[in-house]
């Protein structure tokens, strides 16, 4: 079976675990870098990206997650997790993981729209997905290998670059788990591809 970890340093962890289980994967909370060795995929949840980045540095996750990614293992970043994966963060000198070829803006919807919910059409998923945005970031620029999967008000809010998937919103806060199913499928394909050599 597929084993997918949810980085559990800060943020919305248990909701992701539930959604991954709904999507048919075995899901575990990841608190130690050693746990990465036994995982087929990793979710970096929403929360506060500065805090998550700080704790990742403190506990040695930056290097280890980069290795995990270099091995081709899928990573799914939601909200703060999207920021943690980005190569460039507007207004910040250094990225956190700096893995995905995009520039992101934090808290990009402004104060009057701190949180809201919409039905969002996503490429590769048949009907719109219920999407909860909370102090959400936006993707401002993307590299040539990044595929945009969803746009809201002309802004990029879901994207994929090979084995990396990101969403501005929180897919784990509803019982619509189809984006977790999509990610689980990416993990399954990467694992099968591996065993075929
Ligand atoms: N605004 C948060 C940040 O910049 C992200 C919000 C979220 O994950 N819901 O890290």
Model description:
With 197 residues, this protein is α/β, with parallel strands linked by helices. It has a single domain (3-195), classed as Class I glutamine amidotransferase (GATase) domain (Rossmann fold), CATH 3.40.50.880. Helix content is 27%, strand content 31%. It is built from five helices and twelve strands. It has a seven-stranded mixed β-sheet. The protein has a three-stranded mixed β-sheet with strand order 5-6-9. Strands 7-8 form a two-stranded antiparallel ribbon. A hairpin with a 2-residue loop joins strand 11 and strand 12. The longest helix is centred in the C-terminal third of the chain and has 18 residues, at 178-195. The chain is globular. The model has no long low-confidence stretch (mean pLDDT 95). Bound molecules: glutamine. Glutamine binds next to helix 4.
In order across it, which strands form the biggest sheet? 2-1-3-4-12-11-10
Rounded mean pLDDT is 95
CATH fold naming: Rossmann fold
The helix fraction, in percent, is 25-40%
Which structural category fits the helices and strands?
Answer: alpha/beta
Please state the CA-atom Rg, rounded to the nearest Å: 15 Å
Shape annotation: globular
Keywords: Glutamine amidotransferase, Hydrolase, Lyase, Pyridoxal phosphate
Protein name: Pyridoxal 5'-phosphate synthase subunit PdxT
Function: Catalyzes the hydrolysis of glutamine to glutamate and ammonia as part of the biosynthesis of pyridoxal 5'-phosphate. The resulting ammonia molecule is channeled to the active site of PdxS.
Subunit structure: In the presence of PdxS, forms a dodecamer of heterodimers. Only shows activity in the heterodimer.
């Amino acid at each position: 079976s597929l084993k997918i970890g949810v980085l559990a340093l800060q943020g919305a962890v248990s909701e992701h675990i539930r959604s991954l289980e709904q999507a048919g994967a075995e899901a575990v909370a990841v608190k130690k870098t050693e746990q990465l060795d036994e995982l087929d995929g990793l979710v970096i949840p929403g929360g506060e990206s500065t805090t998550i980045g700080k704790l990742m540095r403190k506990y040695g996750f930056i290097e280890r997650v980069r290795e995990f990614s270099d091995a081709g293992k899928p990573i799914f970043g939601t909200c703060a997790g999207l920021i943690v994966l980005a190569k460039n963060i507007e207004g910040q000198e250094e990225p956190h993981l700096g893995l995905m070829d995009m520039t992101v803006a934090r808290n990009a919807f402004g104060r009057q729209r701190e949180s809201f919910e919409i039905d969002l059409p996503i490429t590769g998923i048949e009907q719109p997905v219920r999407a909860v945005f909370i102090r959400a970031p936006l993707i401002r620029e993307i590299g040539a290998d990044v595929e945009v999967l969803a746009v809201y008000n002309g802004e990029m809010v879901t994207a994929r670059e090979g084995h990396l998937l990101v969403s501005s919103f929180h897919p784990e806060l509803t019982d619509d788990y189809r984006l977790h199913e999509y990610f689980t499928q990416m993990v399954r394909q990467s694992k099968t591809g591996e065993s075929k050599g």
